[in-house]
Amino acid sequence: MITESNEPKSRYRRYLEAVTGLLEDKKRWRQYKARIKRLPENYRMAAEALERYLMHFGPADGTGAMEMFADLADLLEQSAADGTPIRDVFGDDPVEFVETFMANYPLGQYRARERNRFISAIARAAGEDTAREDGR
User: Fold this and answer.
1) pLDDT tier for residue 2 given thresholds of 50, 70 and 90
2) Exposed, middle or buried: residue 131 (CB in 10 Å: 0-12, 13-18, 19+)?
3) For residue 97, what pLDDT is reported?
4) What pTM does this model have?
5) Distance (Å, rounded) from C-alpha 91 to C-alpha 64?
6) What keywords sit in the KW lines (predicted)?
7) Domains in the chain, ordered, with CATH?
């Protein structure tokens, strides 16, 4: 886990990070990309595909996303080291895998909660469900 110094940031750095995002997150992103680049080709292809999916549907904040990407790199590095086939990692339904993977992170949990709320609202609108999710 990376922690920041307790020293106050310079005015320039605060401005720069407000415009470009946290510099620590950028450093962690470069480290993640270097880790993925060292994977065997088939694991690298899977990582890049999952990364592309997460960029569209995953957490939007830098720090939460970086935690997820670091965990992804850990998973794929360990799988490659163990010789675990890609299908054994991702299963027959890669979307189910990635949705479950994302649900383990705070913003992913929000997405799952909103998805369930949406499904319940449609069921109520269709007259299939009378109980509200929030208990009202």
Assistant:
1) very low
2) exposed
3) 93
4) 0.63
5) 25
6) DNA-binding
7) 22-105 (1.10.1900.10)
